[in-house]
Amino acid sequence: MSETFSTLDEAVLAEAEATLVTIRDFIRFGVSALRLHDVHLGHGSNDPFAEATALVMQTLGLDWSADAEILDAKLLPSERRTVVELVRRRVNERTPLGYLLNLAYFAGLPFYVDERVLVPRSPIAELIAGRFQPWLAFEPQRVLDLCTGSGCIAIAVATEFPDALVDAADISMDALSVASVNVEHHDLLERVNLIESDVFGKLPGQRYDLIVSNPPYVDAEDMADLPPEFEKEPELGLASGRDGLDLTRRILAESADHLTDEGVLVVEVGNSQWALEQSFPEVPFEWVEFENGGQGVFVLSAAQCREFQPLFQAALAGD
């Protein structure tokens, strides 16, 4: 996965710290650094201006969309050092912005993140905002978020559906530690239940109106070619076997046993969409079309999960 990449020279960094003055100056410097050194932007934003603005403004404790007048405010020497150091780490170490700031936004909500979890970026956020319509025709009372990571999907769902009880499961205790910070921050301790579970392993007999999952889905070939930023993320949250479907096959094989009669399954498989369709050509996966970008999210009804469960189980047994 590692490759040689362009970095900022220490002399350039020292010159920036010594000569740049205003917020506007440092945002411009950040944009130039990101562009000139071909930094990968794929952890929530594809806009170098938005990323540089977030880096500078958050570091200064300012709202990311502050009034334009503040852009000409001068930085203190200590602030200049901090901003330049973060730009250096973003470019020279390829550390994702979310880890630098310990902050990422998902579904319009703020989340604490660090290297124990993936940086939230799933297009499922758009589905949550749309209340999973037209597939979910009623208010869900019980929801399961499998492979919850930072807890962002579980918390966003609980926020959108204030009467729902949400189970958030993950095999990683490190991830659940991060999720617990976010559950407490969003004051959802009474409605979001964190569970250490390998897929459905610790959920015997539990049934849900909605099961949603953004599991690991990167195949072996793509894992070898990921940009260096992804090396900072836990491999457990990315890799899922040769074709990227190891976890997805397990979810498909067992979901029928955990959905209510009118329940819905929503799973993100990203670039492994083609592999899934080739593996199960008989299954009418409904692929979500997103207005704000993103792909590889399918929806199945509980009835479909039951109908094709023997097929899913046979495929899992054949692995």
In total, the number of strands is: 9
* CATH second-level architecture of the largest domain: 3-Layer(aba) Sandwich
CATH first level of the largest domain: Alpha Beta
> How large is the share of residues in beta strands?
5-15%
- What's the average pLDDT? 94
Largest sheet: 7 strands, mixed
Task: Give the tally of structural domains.
Answer: 2
Low-confidence stretches: none
Enumerate the strands of the largest sheet in spatial order, edge to edge or round the barrel: 5-4-3-6-7-9-8
Spatial separation of the terminal alpha carbons? 26 Å
Helix content percent band: 25-40%
Q: What is the tally of helical segments? A: 13
| Annotated CATH homologous superfamily of the largest domain | Vaccinia Virus protein VP39
| Cα Rg | 21 Å
* Series of secondary-structure elements, N-terminal to C-terminal: HHHHHEEHEHEHEEHHEHEEHH
Q: From the helix content, strand content and strand pairing, which structural class follows? A: alpha/beta
The outline comes out as elongated
The fold-level CATH name of the largest domain is Rossmann fold
